[in-house]
Write a structure and sequence with these properties.
Layout lengths: L23 H10 L1 H6 L12 H16 L2 H7 L5 H21 L8 H24 L5 H8 L4 H17 L1 H4 L7 H18 L10 H26 L6 H4 L38
């Protein structure tokens, strides 16, 4: 096993900006393409849904373009690099997102107008904070500009998911440099899908097995992302920055210093460990 502090010949890998989902159609296509994979997943392989699925999807969508940049290093360093898993990661994230949308109630407890007003205000607040972070070179300016291009109501829903991904993937570095709290990031990840469902011209197809399918889609994503995180940890072991490329799906609160204010720390809870976080380099 290599020492983390040992000299390393690899140069720093360029990090690509986060992309945003493109609405319901690509997510529905991903879901349909993966139906057979969901069905054949054994019951004992199902993961409990102990994290907000939209937030988890936002994290994966943010990580996927970064992880792709590491494929050459994975292929050079690993006997069985997870190339196919990495290449399918976005599809699995979108499929899990759509499965979650299908399992949601057909009608929101709030009218679309109210959700849209909330989304508009939250999007503006997050974008303003993102601009400041981009000016400080703490998040990718290209990603912020890409999100800002959205103009319609559907774009607002998708933009919230993209903004949640943008903040989530860099949270450890920015949480004490922004007025945005973790709760607002999580709110964006949850509100985006709710608004998308509310704005849908036609109700999403419903199924008696929607909850089971949602758990299967989530489990497939979790297993794939765990495999990817192990590979990322291996190739970035010397740099010690694996979480920069593939952060955990589960919120991990920083420990507060005595007398420190709690803003931006989410609910203040510690990581429950349910994500099976990668703690050591795989062999």
């Amino acid at each position: 096993m290599n020492d983390r502090n040992a000299p390393h010949a690899k140069t720093k890998t360029a990090i690509k900006p986060v992309d945003r989902p493109s609405g319901l159609a690509p997510a529905a296509e991903a879901f349909e393409a993966l139906k057979a994979e969901y069905a054949k997943l054994p019951d004992e392989a199902l993961s409990p849904i102990n994290v907000d699925i939209p937030r988890a999807v936002a994290v994966v969508l943010g990580a996927e373009p970064r992880v792709r940049t590491l494929l050459p290093e994975m292929e050079a360093a690993l006997k069985s690099p997870p190339k196919r898993v990495v290449e399918s990661l976005r599809q699995m994230a979108l499929g899990a997102w759509y499965a979650h949308l299908v399992a949601m109630p057909a009608k929101s407890d709030r009218p679309a107008k109210d959700l849209l007003e909330q989304a508009t205000a939250l999007r503006a607040k997050l974008l303003k904070a993102a601009d400041a972070l981009a000016d400080a070179e703490l998040v990718d300016a290209t990603a912020v500009a890409r999100i800002r291009e959205g103009s319609g109501n559907i774009d607002k829903a998708n933009d919230l998911v993209a903004l949640a991904a943008l903040f989530s993937q860099s949270w450890d570095a920015i949480h004490n440099k922004t007025a945005i709290a973790r709760e607002q990031v999580d709110e964006a990840a949850l509100l985006g899908p709710r608004l998308l469902v509310a704005l849908a011209e036609e109700p999403l197809p419903k199924s008696d097995h929607a909850n089971d399918t949602r758990q299967r889609a989530f489990s497939l994503l979790v297993h794939a992302y765990d495999e990817v995180r192990r590979a990322v940890t291996h190739v970035r072991w010397a740099e010690g920055d694996a979480d920069t490329f593939a952060p955990s799906l589960y919120t991990k609160s920083r420990k507060r210093k005595s007398g420190e204010a709690g803003e931006g720390d989410g609910d203040g809870s510690e990581d429950d460990g349910a994500a099976n976080p990668v703690e050591s380099r795989p062999t």
